[in-house]
């Protein structure tokens, strides 16, 4: 394929081609060294060092995620609207530079917890351009029959980061300190993401090509389009009136409530139970391994079965892992159970994106997914703070573990409540990602 054709604004390339996989490779590197992988998988490793160095309590540190929750309704819908309306590549390149500078700024923190909160809120803005939402929007434009596998691979790349980043981060913290760890994060983000974006990231359907091209794109992915028969919501206000949107939001919120309560505190939880910092980092890597397997498995299965049914399945194993951790049985049993916990944090990313793409149109994918992120933030931002308060009041995380398992069970029930088809959709239309 002629490389120059990839940038021709008047051409629409076929999906599932070598150009599609090259773009996926570039997006995968961005996911591997993005904010979600670099900081999301290592947040727990900073809890104790920040507590010891700066004198903040674990509840105060975890409260940064709650503040992010309050900020999400402002940032996420705007991000979704922007990626639906503007070219993605400039947004991604700008986001890489800004998020890298934000990482470096963390290394200059002193005793004021307010500065930490401000940098965490700023990270939400700077990371928006190269976020997983932007990357998923980019990738879903390049794939049709392999969309499930493509999204699974994309999020699996982030899971690979969740395997390797805790190991080197803990090593840097141990040898040089947490400030140097943030500087390394910023450097990796700038170099690795920058090169991948410049060399590999391209957008398949330009935003300026008009409604005819949009209609052709919708027919390629066999998605429900906005018509009197399907009544797919096409605006922010319409999402708020849509029953399916609320059912999906319920699933995402309780999923985030369960995972957020444990995942962000898991390294500290293990150290409270006698683990060394290196063992805690190993456990976080096992969570990442579970996430890797969960994303690959979810991406493969969602091409073969209902995404809603798969969402029910991926909730139960992590719930079992959480209950195993609560029951105790030794340090290594808890570390092994971390792999089951990772299945949830990994598999749900793919399933959640496929659900959004299943029930909403291609043109509104960014806005539909972004508004769902508000629901996820409502759970994921509050639960780490609550788990931190539980620890500060009781001296352990036992009640937080029970709360997390219960929330995962509710998320499974919410997923089972989702319909197979949008009401009014023709039964002959094949769900996205289901072959045969």
Rg from C-alpha positions? 21 Å
CATH superfamily: MFS general substrate transporter like domains
CATH architecture: Up-down Bundle
Distance between the termini: 29 Å
Mean pLDDT: 78
Number of strands: 0
Query: Which fold name fills CATH's third level, the topology?
Result: Growth Hormone, Chain: A
Helicity level: over 70%
DSSP helical segment count: 18
Overall structural class, as computed from helix and strand content, comes to: mainly alpha
H/E series: HHHHHHHHHHHHHHHHHH
- Uncertain regions spanning at least 5 consecutive residues: 1-11, 206-230, 426-436
What is the number of domains?
A: 1
Major sheet, described briefly?
Answer: none
Q: State the CATH class.
A: Mainly Alpha
Structural topology:
Blueprint: H1 18-32, H2 35-38, H3 43-54, H4 58-85, H5 88-106, H6 113-126, H7 132-140, H8 147-175, H9 178-199, H10 211-221, H11 236-240, H12 243-263, H13 266-272, H14 277-301, H15 307-327, H16 331-359, H17 365-394, H18 398-416
Helix pairs in contact: 1-7, 1-8, 1-9, 4-6, 4-17, 5-6, 5-9, 7-8, 8-9, 8-14, 8-16, 12-16, 12-17, 12-18, 13-14, 14-16, 15-16, 15-18, 16-17, 17-18
């Amino acid at each position: 394929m002629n490389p120059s054709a990839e940038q021709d604004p008047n051409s629409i390339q076929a999906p599932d081609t070598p150009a599609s996989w090259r773009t996926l490779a570039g997006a995968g590197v961005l996911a591997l060294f993005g904010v979600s992988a670099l900081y999301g998988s290592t947040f727990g490793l900073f809890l104790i060092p920040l507590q010891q160095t700066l004198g903040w309590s674990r509840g105060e540190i975890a409260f940064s995620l709650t503040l992010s929750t309050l900020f999400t309704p402002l940032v996420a819908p705007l991000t979704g609207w922007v990626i639906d309306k503007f070219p993605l590549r400039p947004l991604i390149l700008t986001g890489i530079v800004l998020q890298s500078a934000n990482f470096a700024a963390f290394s200059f923190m002193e005793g004021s917890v307010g500065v930490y909160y401000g940098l965490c809120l700023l990270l939400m803005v700077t990371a928006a351009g190269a976020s997983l939402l932007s990357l998923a929007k980019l990738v879903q434009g390049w794939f049709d029959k392999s969309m499930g596998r493509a999204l699974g691979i994309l999020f699996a790349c982030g899971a690979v980061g969740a395997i390797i980043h805790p190991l080197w981060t803990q090593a840097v913290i141990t040898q040089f300190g947490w400030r140097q760890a943030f500087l390394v994060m910023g450097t990796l983000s700038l170099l690795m993401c920058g090169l991948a974006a410049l060399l590999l990231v391209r957008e398949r359907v330009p935003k300026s090509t008009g409604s005819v091209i949009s209609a052709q794109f919708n027919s390629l992915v066999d998605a429900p389009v906005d018509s009197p028969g399907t009544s797919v919501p096409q605006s922010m206000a319409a999402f708020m009136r849509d029953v399916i949107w609320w059912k999906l939001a319920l699933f995402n919120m309780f999923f985030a409530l369960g995972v957020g309560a444990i995942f962000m505190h898991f390294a500290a939880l293990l150290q409270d139970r006698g683990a060394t910092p290196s063992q805690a980092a190993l456990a976080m890597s096992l969570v990442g391994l579970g996430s890797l397997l969960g994303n690959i498995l979810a991406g493969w299965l969602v091409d073969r079965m209902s995404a809603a049914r798969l969402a029910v399945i991926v909730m139960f194993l992590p719930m079992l892992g959480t209950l195993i951790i609560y029951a105790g049985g030794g340090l290594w049993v808890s570390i092994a159970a971390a792999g089951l916990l990772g299945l949830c944090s990994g598999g749900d990313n793919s399933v959640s994106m496929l659900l959004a793409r299943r029930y909403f149109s291609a043109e509104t994918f960014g806005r539909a997914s972004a508004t769902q992120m508000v629901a996820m933030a409502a759970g994921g931002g509050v639960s780490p703070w609550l788990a931190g308060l539980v620890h500060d009041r009781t001296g352990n995380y036992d009640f937080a573990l029970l709360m997390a398992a219960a929330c995962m069970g509710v998320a499974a029930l919410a997923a089972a409540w989702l319909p197979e088809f949008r009401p009014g959709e023709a039964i002959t239309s094949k769900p996205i990602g289901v072959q045969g």
